[in-house]
Amino acid sequence: MNVFISYDHRDGDKASKLEEDLKLQHIGIWIDKKCIKPGTIWLQEIDKGLSTRQADYVLGIITNPYIDSTGGVEAYVKISEGLRTKNIKFIPLFFEDINEINSVIIPAINGFKFYEDYNKGLLDLIKFLKSEEPERSVELLSKIEGENSKNPFRRTRAEFFESDYSLAMAFADPEKERYELVCGRMPLFIFGGRGSGKTMILRSLTPEVRISLSKVKTFKEAKEKGVDYFGIYIRLMRGSFSLADNNTILKLGFLNLGVAKDYNLYRELWKKIDKGITDEPIISSGINAAQKIFLNEINLKILKTIIAKLKHLQDIKVISINNDTEQKIVSLLNKRLAPSLVIKSFNDLMDFIDTELDKIKDYLQKITLPSNDTLSANWVISGSDFLDHACNIFVDNIVDLKDTKFYLLLDEFENLLTYQQIIINEWIKTSNNIVVKVGVKYESTHTNMTLQGQPLQFKVGECDEIALDYDLFDDIDIAKYQRLLKRICEKLLRLESYREINIENILENPSAPELPQEVIDQCIKEIIGERFQENIQEYRRKFEVASIFRLLRKKEKVEGRKSKKKVYAGFDTYTYLSSGIIRIFLNLIGMAVYRAEGNGVNVKSGQKISIEDQSWASRVVSKAYLEKIYKNVEPYMGINGEIIYQFVTDIGDIFRERLLFHSSEPETLSISVKDSHNLDGEEFSLLKALLKHGVRESILYKREETSSYRPKQSTGIRTKDYVLNRVYTPALEISHRARWGRCNFYVKELSNLITSETREKTKKNLQKRQGKEEKKAPLFGEE
Amino acid sequence: MYKPMEIENIGTMVNNEPDDIFVCAGSHETRCLGSVRKLETSYKAKGVFILKYSHKNEEREKHLTEMRSILKEVGTIKEFLVDEEMPIPVINEIIQEMVQYIKNLDHPKIIIDISTLIKWHLLILLKALDSKGLLNKCRFIYTEPEDYIIELFQPLSFGIKEIFPIPFFSGNFDFAKDCLLVIMLGYEGDRAMGLLENIDPTECLLLIPKPAYHPEWEGRTEEMNKEIINIVGQSNIKYIDSRDPIIVAKGLNSILSNGYSKYNCLISPMGTKPQSLGLYLYWSTNPTDTSLIYSAPLRHNDLFYSKGIGRTWMLPSKLSTE
Q1: Average pLDDT over residues A81-96
Q2: Between chains, do B93 and A263 touch, taking CB under 8 Å as contact?
Q3: Are residues A604 and A651 in contact, defined by beta-carbon separation less than 8 angstroms?
Q4: Rounded Cα distance, A304 and A301, in Å
Q5: Do A725 and A734 touch, CB atoms closer than 8 A?
Q6: B128 at A interface, C-beta within 8 A
Q7: How far is CA A288 from the centre of its chain?
Q8: Nearest-by-CA chain B residue for A312
Q9: Rg of chain B over CA atoms, in angstroms?
Q10: Which of A238, A263, A630 sits opposite B158 (nearest CB)?
Q11: Of A382, A554, B38, B108, which has the fewest CB atoms closer than 10 Å, so is most exposed?
Q12: What is the SS3 assignment for A53?
């Protein structure tokens, strides 16, 4: 929903408060305002203000100064005519007594009273706007992903698959080189945003999925087909460990150093930990103690998981372990854990592990609560090489596992604290019998240090890394990505018995631009002049999309224009919109199927999804993803979802201005930071955190440097580029392509954009910089 | 007393003897004054503990002023400033102070108004009371709001500040098991949805409070949680009592012992405060299998929050699952 606030310059504070209050309610996406200067006809100003975006509603802050700017009775007549003919939905908000308003027309229009009780007026306005809102995008998306949905693309996450078998049937491995790294013996960090497929890839390495994919029944048979690893999938969820909060770390520190409890010191140290300051003696002592406890906890939990997995596979006859083998394994493990105890079976061992874990939990609870019990830390101590040793025992003694390697598949690595990640790094560096594969979001590895104090060495034989998101600026990557998408869709459609399983055939492809070529060409000529004739194809490539946007937004009639909405349809377009993230693509396709089937199209029997339905789906999914920013993104280093949302919409407005007015490179999705070295300054820490958090959440992407991006001279400064996720482009009304063109910013400008005092002025200046001022249009345009 | 009892007046636990401690929390919600305004004129307590949260709020300051003026006639007031993000030290301090006031630890006379305590703080307070052997000896009071301004179905809060396991309430998370997320729903659908999106459980159960506090409130929870209900599905909705902690505990036991033992169970309290009491009861009998998780909102939607003071209840004082 677009809401536009019109006000007299003397009522600026009222307009700002109203804007703020509406934004706090998130009732619409676009809220903009236009100040009416004295002596101007306010609808003319509204007209100008609406030049870059269609508004659903114009809210007028009605005071007598506002009315005085209309300029007499003749203006009134013209205004009422304009309201009628232009179908501008104008809602007066009465900030002065209706009976005192110097106008006949305005009080006659239905509006809301703010002068008696501001909050009541606000509530009534919100109620009206809410009632006019179409069904919420996030709600529509939830219908597709819902449990009762029959949509073939409802399973957008690994967790949505009912069994390992169905997961295996839907799994499509990425291209050969990438998947070889995943399956290979090198420890690996798999970076990817939400929905990029990290969990699917890690789970594809587990014995159950491997057996399904190999179409065999036992692990031994899978080995004969080339499977030489045994994957244990572990999801490092929040809450999966006892130790994950500052309170316990501090208590351990106070305890270890024998420091008396002091609440003020406690608060001060808590804030330091939050800022990442850990070199205070109490904090570092607490972290050391916490690390030792965590190491024991994670060793025991993973050991228990391995044993549970082996038992389960034994029960379903995937592997074979006889009693003697079991006893031998338990005995060897026990020598390391608790030599004085007699433990004879897997079940006994698991019970023992539970007892030890209870001791740890109990201890941690007692040190932080007032308790009458005495404290004692008397659980088994296992070292950093314990799991390596344990896995060696399993492989040496279980015949079916001979010549295989244990793969520890650790998902959601970002949920570990820094001192916890250090332990995993240690395993990566020093293990001989386990290979660690880590699934993690971008910018979420807090450290590359190990327990020994040495850093992990990437790409030099110690460990490797891959990024799952595809770079849509690279033609080769696009081709790989599209192949993967087609394979995934094929599998999902086949699972649901769709007749047509080639996704390209299901989506109707726009065969021509949405406007006649000659009309577009004329617009291009208006931008660049007669040079157009010199290289028509090149200029079309560069300006066609921008021209279409400009022609679509024109108020006056445009030849061949059937709708003012941009088309977003076709397999290629959906590829781009998904920004290289599989889940987004599945959401787009799922929504398109939903819409088409709602319109009576039998997609299952092979009927195509129309361009209109695809465009509708694009806009809904785009809006849903935009809304999810402020709803679901957790804060990081002072940056929360609402701040990022505002930043994204402001950048979208700036990019849109460029699209509509720039005369050489109108299309862009890149925030190009010219003086990126300044990001390290203390005063810009919030901006730096925003950019980092945006990358973590796949709202922004760091663009890899290519030769075309390097400065022309060796003395030129390299910029840092952040690309906006393309899924937002339909909602932001900008181009999803943007293969070239960078919008340059200075660090200070971006920082001012996220500072409330300087935001509005900075945004206006940045928008102005994107293009020339539009020629003044007549009051209501000409048909 | 084994059932919640609606009360019009609050008197001392023993006639003509002051209670040991009266505890209440200041809030922007008017119902924080519910119990205070219902104290009998003769009500006395040796100690009055007022909890106030650290972030500034005009409405809350107004309510605190009234609270102080009433409670200064009741007993010696001690105020505790609670940091929303790190409540544990203050809760510890409250417990230590309580012990000083209690004449007879076997029969303490403590009244705690839980109406406006933040739910995860309430759970930690209950744990702290339990660790001192005081839990089953307290009286808990709860005041409903008169109503919520939700006819517009705007959320009561926006965004997510943090999702975290509630300290002291983590079970023995087993990596060999899948994750079951149980959300006790309230009126904050976006918050519930955010929790689901961030946790990504294998299974999810939604617990809707029933009956609603008032007949005309029936259906609100479903309306406010449309999105998550769409995703999770009607078949994963269960109903659970809204007001009686003992029935809530029994209800949780009945639901979760029915085929869900193969999961790591994460429960998130987003429903009513009495439900949070019941959740504590349930958790205390199932500490290894269950973890409690909390989704703190980024900001509350003050325009649409609760209004007025509704009924006040004395919740069962013998908090056990017998």
Answers
A1: 76
A2: yes
A3: no
A4: 5
A5: no
A6: yes
A7: 34
A8: B176
A9: 19
A10: A630
A11: A554
A12: coil
Answer whether 0.80 is exceeded by the pTM: yes
Q: Which of A126, A305, A369 is opposite residue B154, by nearest beta carbon?
A: A126
pLDDT in tens, A297-328: 999 999 999 999 999 999 999 999 999 999 99
Residue ranges of A 64-123 with Cβ closer than 8 A to chain B? 119, 122-123
Give the residue from chain A lying closest to B97, CA to CA. A370
DSSP structure class, residue B235: G
Provide the Cα torsion A598, A604, A605, A608; round to 10°. Answer: 60
Q: Summarize pLDDT for B240-256 with one digit per residue, the tens.
A: 999 999 999 999 999 99
Question: Which strands form A742-745's sheet, in the order they lie side by side?
Answer: A700-702, A720-724, A670-673, A742-745
Q: Which of residues 286-315 of A touch B (CB under 8 A)?
A: 301-302, 304-305, 308-309, 312
Is A179 near chain B, with CB under 8 Å? no
Indicate the SS3 state at residue A400.
Answer: helix
Token pair 């997995």 is found at A309
Judged by a CB distance cut-off of 8 A, whether residue B288 touches chain A is yes
CB-closest option in B96, B149, B162 to A370: B96
ipTM of the complex: 0.87
Strands A720-724 and A670-673: antiparallel
**What are the residues whose beta carbons fall under 8 Å from the beta carbon of A533, sequence distance 6 or more?**
none
Task: Give the pLDDT band of residue A48 (cuts 50, 70, 90).
Answer: low
Axis crossing angle, helix A137-145 with helix A582-598, rounded to the nearest 10: 90
In the three-class reduction of DSSP (H, G, I as helix; E, B as strand; rest coil), residue A428 is classed as: helix
Q: What is the pLDDT of residue A156?
A: 77
Residues of A in contact with B303 (CB under 8 A): 21, 24-25, 119, 122-123
Q: Is the dihedral of CA A567, A573, A574, A577 positive or negative?
A: negative
CA A269 to chain CA centroid, nearest Å? 32
Which residues of chain B are under the pLDDT cut of 50?
320-322
Query: In sequence order, which residues have a C-beta less than 8 Å from that of residue A475 and are 6 or more positions away?
Result: none
Q: What is the residue whose two structure tokens read 């036992």?
A: A218
Report the distance separating Cα A706 and Cα A411, nearest Å.
31
Please compute the mean of the pLDDT values over residues A665-669 and round it to a whole number. 90
Cα-trace Rg, chain A? 31
Q: Which residue of A has its CA nearest to B295?
A: A634
Q: Do residues B20 and B47 touch, judged by C-beta distance below 8 A? A: yes
Determine the average pLDDT of the residues in A450-460. 87
Q: Is A508 on the interface with B (CB under 8 A)?
A: no
Handedness of CA B290, B295, B301, B302 (dihedral sign): positive
Pick from A92-96, A364-368, A394-398, A738-742: least confident: A738-742
> CB B132 to CB A126 under 8 A?
no
Q: Is the peptide bond before B211 cis (omega within 30 degrees of 0)?
A: yes
CA A593, CA A599: separation in Å to the nearest integer? 10
Contact with chain A for residue B134, Cβ under 8 A: no
Assess B70–A contact: CB distance below 8 Å, yes or no: no
Question: A97: which residues sit within 8 A by CB, 6+ positions away?
Answer: A115
Residue with tokens 């850093």: A455
- C-alpha A142/C-alpha A624 separation (Å) is 10
